[in-house]
Sequence to fold (491 residues):
Amino acid sequence: MAEVVRRELVYVLTAVVVIIMIVDYFFAVPAISAIAGELNTWATVISTMALTLGAVNIIRVHSRNVRKRTPGVWYHSAWLIFIFAFVLLLGLTNINNPSANPIYKWIFDYSYVSLGQTWYAITGFYIASAAYRAFRARNIDAALLLIAGILVMLKNAPIGEVIWAQLPVLGGWFNDIGQMPAMRTFLIVAAFGLLAFGFRTLLGRERGFYGEVGGG
Amino acid sequence: MSQESIWDRLQRIDRRVIYWILFILLMIPFIRPLSLPVSIGPQSITFIEGLRKLKEGDVVVINISSGVSAWPECLPSLVAVSKVLIQQKAKIIFWTSFVDGHMTFEKIVEKVPEFKKLTYGVDYVHLGFYTGAEPAVAQLAKNIRSIFTTDYKGTPIDQLPIMKGVNSANDVKMVISSDTGDYCDYYIRQWRIPYGVPLAEIGIAMNFSAYQPHWQAGILFGVTAGARGGAELEKLIGAPGDATITMDSINTSHLLVIVAVILANLGYAATRRRK
Fold:
């Protein structure tokens, strides 16, 4: 019984919040707007708490690895905990502006930035190799996709117009006439899907995010 | 044992060979820049035209929702846009939904020498990091002070002259969103549609196709496509920068991918005909 009441309470709360947010968005009633604003602030505060929760969870998982001496993993976990604690302490030394601490700034400028950009750049190598191995004109559809892909690439790279001035025009045609209607359709269909999802949530029929599978 | 034909081998080039060729090709522009001309798309033209409509003292928000890993794609456009905003004598408020957003802000300030002539807190400010995705963006539109009470250095927001009279989306003339994800969607739904604030997107190349329909519908006044978009903005404002240099690497890498794909398909077609 208590479980049913608890569950129904969540449905009712969700429906109330959804109604407040919809009325606020479409009708701008000052009293409702104030409540909606408060709810938005709550959502922001909860997100901030989720960040802390994520940090605590990382420490919990990696502490377990170190405690159990998980083969091949524990020393990485130990390093992660050390770096976590080190950067946290550095940050706490000047909580309002951690960048003012030269060591903190050095870590970000010379390890975080370099690693981030290296990681992103490496995808270029994978994409080049994957395109070579995967793009095969096995049938007419694949051949069309291949031709369109090459023309759009030649439109984006200035070398396309150096090879032939009309190449960007052709690539632009595929982009504007070929791609855009499909993307527009996708956006509109997704918006309708979101509306349907909202209504189902409002009616308590969308229960996936309560931890239940499926719905009515 | 049968010998592999050249057509078979064309389909099975070791990936390490492709990595090395790509690496060498990416190095060529550093030794000998190609400096090929970049044509300008209409999305970049309307972007700059939109910025040029700003008047002295207008408040512009730059939302940084891209991390440092996206600097090669987004930073040149952010730098070019900041230069135009300073030329227009606009007041710039930066904020970020990425934990490393302050680094992007500091990099923009470093790369735009004109910032040195301005006063922090009077002409520009960075309010810092916010979390909470779309609800936070909605709340920023209603009441900036309910999300930010201080700037990223801890100075109370009410002590910053730039923030005097700036409370909500009604007090902001324009938003520029730099994205690797879907934050621009949040600003479309929570700022552009309800408050009518003009909005433009600085995205990674992948975002371009998603936001192009919004540009065509007039919801966004400008969209840039990664480094290419940055190069177009740099050309439009007559200040070649990092994106213009990056175009050389884009030329060589794109060419390699196209040649590799064509070779693999020639090999595939030849072997299929033989069978």
About this structure: The mean pLDDT of chain A is 87. Residues 99-134 of chain A form one domain.
